[in-house]
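Before the break, one more example. Copy the sequence into your notebook; we will annotate it together after we see the structure.
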Amino acid sequence: MKINHLTSAEENFMKLFWKLESFYLKDVMEQHPEPKPHQNTASTYLKILVEKGYLKTEKEGRIFKYSVIVPMEEYRKFLLKELAHHFFNDSGKEILEFLFNENLISQNDLKGYFDLKIEIKPAKTEEPKFEIAEEVLNPKKGKKLKEKEKSKDGKEKKKKKKKD
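Here is what the structure looks like once it is written out:
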């Protein structure tokens, strides 16, 4: 189904028609908010919206019954795609950035829509060894540390040899 652009006046009428779904001209006149349009104006807009493919008619005696063909959701999708294409380079990311920058949406608003369970755990790292700093600050301890490390390395090498 090809959707055509609507003028703001046509959109205002369609908002009422989407609520009514199926209706007669008299229903439009009764349900339209103030200031109510003249009956000829409402009739003209009904004719235009039938031509644009938003409404269909069914003749019942001398009067027409109108029904909505294009659901509101389809029109909203159409408008959003047009907006994305013409103003945001077809990028949902750019739209979201704009909505965040304009405070029209927050991260809390999105929490219910995305199930992102990303847990960032710190990588396991060994304590840094500052051998030179140890030697400078504590010359005697620094030598002892080096000797301990050498003896540990030697013991580990012996263990590996025994296993082989």
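The first strand starts at residue 22 and ends at 23. The chain has a mean pLDDT of 81. Try to locate both features in your own notes.
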